[in-house]
Specification:
Arc Repressor Mutant, subunit A, Methylamine Dehydrogenase, Chain H, disordered N terminus, D-Maltodextrin-Binding Protein, domain 2
Amino acid sequence: MAEAAMVIAMGILAGWARLVVAERSQPAHTTAEADPRGRGPLTRGVVPSRTMAARGDLSFFLLGGIEARLEGKLLALGGARQRTVIADLALNARRVVSTRRLVDDLWGDQAPTSAGHSLEAHISRIRGLLVRSGVDGAIVSRSGGYMMDVEPDQVDALRFERLAAEGDAALVKGDAAEAARLYREALEMWRGPALADLGDSPLGSSAGQRLDARRLLVLERQVDAALMLGRHREISGELESLLAVHPYHERFHWQLMLALYRSRRQAEALAAYRRARQTLVDDLGIEPGPELQQLERAILHQELDLELPAEVSHAAGSETFVPGPTIAAPAEADLRSPSPSAPTAIGSARRHRQHRRGRLAAVASAFVLALIAAAAPLLLRGHGGTVTVRPNGLGMLSADGRAVASELALDAPPGQLAAGGGSLWATSPEAHVVYRIDPATQRVTQSISVGGGADGIAIGYGSAWVANALDGTVSRIDLATNRVVDTIGVGSAPTAVAVGEGSVWVADATGGTLERIDPATDRLIASVSLSSPPFDIAVFAGAVWVTSQSANQVLRVNPVTGNITQDIAVGGGPTAVVAGNGSVWVANSRDSTVSAIDPRRGSVAATIPVDNGPSSLAAGAGGVWVANALSGTLSLIDPGQKRVVSSIGVGNRPVAIAGDGADVWFAVRAAQTGQHRGGTLHAESSFPLASIDPANLWPEAPSQLWAYTYDTLVTYQRSGGRSGLQLVPDLAVFLPSPSDGGTTYTFVLRPGVRYSTGQLVRPEDFRHGFERTLELNGAGAGSFLEGITGASACATRPAHCDLSKGITVDERTDTVTFHLTSTDTNFLYKLTFVFTAPVPVNIPARDVGSSPVPSTGPYEIRRFIPGHELDLVRNPRFHEWSAAAQPDGFPDQINWTFGMSPGQEAAAVEHGAADWTSDIGPGTLSEAATAFAGQLHINAGLGTYYLFLNTRVAPFDDVRVRRALNLAVDRSRLVQIFGGPLVAQPACQLLPPSMPGYQPYCPYTADPSPTGAWVGPDLAAARALVAASGTGGERVTVWAHQGDPPSTPTAEYVASVLQQLGYPATVHFLKESEWVSTVSDSRRQVQLGTNNWIADYPAPSNFYTLWLGCSNFVPADPLHTSNASEFCDPGVDQQVSKASALQTTDPLHANALWADIGREITDLAPVLPVVNFSSADLLSRRCGNYQFSPAVGILLDQLWVR
């Protein structure tokens, strides 16, 4: 029975996962409603612009011949070129299409020299046609391109996508009847092949083929809905018709076999399998896939799980399946043009709430991931060519690619692979190392420490080049000596590296640039600004090919000029790119496809379906291998036939694949299966935990204490590396865009989430949780929530807190809406704190003591002894709704012990009595780095230690003096004061390197370079600036904080530097109780003092606004002043506001602005940055699968306990 259940699950998954996951890459579209006068779709829930009413009557039809209608009247479009432009812009409604892309889609590689002028002429004619028809402003010019300013639902292809996504979501919820209706409505819009007018033009070949393939998938889903409704008898004939047109479509064969079997026609079901096999073998020379073979075996054994559940079978009798164009073969589809008033017209859209679409699409995605996780244990048994490869290691395929010939365990989870120099190379982002493997002996010959977050790797020019994503560098490893011979600063987040055309090419995902390194000098020689964030790189056919996951494009870059010569549309979420076998191959992670690009034409030659979540590619003589992370498989593509010819399951998540010319190697990480689950993890902390109430956990308790027990609407992606800074929905279905001028946020809740007590999580629990927080912890958490309407009143009268106006809830729609008093671009970040977690309304507003608030995460609190011990055990009600937000944990139990000294904690871990601690002093850290190097993990943090320089008090009211002090300070001395390079690194900017928007820049160093690295002090230049200012001899007082241990030695050293510059300097010490009231009071005229800051959330504004914003300097008011530098630059404030507003919607643009702001503030020097902090984790020998998130820290629940 288990195998039969698996057959059905995998059969549904195989045809479904690609579609549902792909929907996540589609833009959110506004739901349209039919105008009762029959004029077409109107936008509801959107405030119309001055011209929107006229544009709302305009509709575009692309699912067949290309048409445009205004109030139902057909417009007279021009020839094929005009229609191509219209289709291109309509398919991207409300999104800018670059001029380069439009030219490529019009002419491909045959573009004339006058292509730009010709495009402008076509745009002008289309605008003229629309204006003469009474529509103005439909096509808008934007920087670098054009945009069709119409609602997505005014384009039949986009509405088709939306309806299909809603159908998937309905199917996930178990509402098969609603799903069938939505699929039917979506499919009825088709009038023939998509973009039929364009033939084999570049756009017709790419977008047209994608839409046709999507239609086929929706047809599959319609059959799935019919099977779920028990309509197997009615659809058998329709499936026969579909197979007559698509004889090689194995999915339809699978569905037909199941429909026949459920119709008590077992012999015919088996005959259908034999026909399918004969067709595939005779025509294509291949055997049926594993899903068909497994279904045949289940039918032969008459497995009970193949039957429809009795309750479904009974319910199905009340409905009749009506065959129609939804199931009809494409050749039989109605080719007539739609009537504006007919049911097939866009204007017949039924009413849907705008939030419903996003909610259901996200639920569908979560369901597919859950289905994969559920299927994994059965896959590991070896059905259908599946073997189990141990996680966090490497595997080598057999010569025929049908088995795993050998395995190799690594000490840490692998990242990327590369082959070269007679070796295989594997990075580990968590361990910050590169492993060198001898393929002959299959042993690790060297483990080489590199920079933070070692990710991409490439071999060339006698070296291995490693992109270190967490510290903005590239490490160069000499192949002969196995040593790092140079570390090159290349931006903020280098994730991929490639070699070729005489250079080393590096992708900076945060900065949105392609960096070029000269391997002869190891210097940066060029930086190419890209139109979207890069992901991966390949060098081939005289070009550099760069994937952009967010833009669904591959950028072709001229390696000589650095110009982008093409942007090629591929599938959803392109990640890996590799060149070989005459093509450029691109893995589309959201579509679960691989695009083959013809480099001569610069266009997609084929789109090849593969298994779920392709993440890495390798091209060689045997073909193109694809590592499919979500499905746990490897697929082999025949480059000539452009199709998958074999696949093998590996049990865990293959994240990388590479070939060394003779063998194919792949790297695997752990999948959430039964393997490695279990055991008790013992954690140590010197922090004496006093409360387990979510309202009171912040700010004292580390995030590891609550991240696995409680959930919030929004959280950070639970993954290692920079992706751990990404906001993702947790208890919400999707991240909403604000409305009402940025003051309203509406969240749709995930359905079916329960507390550990079994209660459903309800909308009112969120408001209750916020009110409890303000009543119990208003002093600590109140500053983050004060922007919610009514929160300020709660601060003054906490016992009578009422947020009914600030947080409105709707049980019927499962929504929670926040109403803010003013725009807050950081509001989503603030919702990640534990004090925003929902709390059942029956729990009163008093600390819960030792009786915990019910949990929603994978663990619940079983026992709590205040200040001594905390036990977490599995939450029996937890189910994984999002692996990105809250994955299931590995240990069965996590036991915390509090109150030991840092030295005792380290000793307990070293001797195996405990498994983890992060309380490690500098002395212990140095010992551990030597004696327990494999157990110690150092990671960059989100904090900076600095001195504020009062820009309104002499001598620091002169920027030359501020710059002089920055130049004169020896930051290496300060690093030693803080405990050495394991604890701290020199800082030139207020923003730490691990923060989004950071770009290396350091003008305050000897021998400044483009890498932005601090080299040493320049006392001579500093003295010249002081002399020019004429301020030498003025008395200076450095203020130190007695409650901050590094403050005193730091202040004393800075005072000694000031004396070298000619300023008589002394140090004044303040008690903690006096600090704020003194240094934040402009009347005291404090000149400079020490300060440190660890970000509340990974937004640069948390540094700039808080410590340097005009709003946080209020003269003579220390209570409302945090900006002790008294720095106020309205221009900088405006830039900060602009960048903050773009942070979640356009991070590439925002990061570029943050980099500009960082350079400007560094030049103005209102602060003296000293060091950036690091964090340390010490693990016992029995722990594995270490992962570090910059936002959360160590992912304790993902550790294995061996």
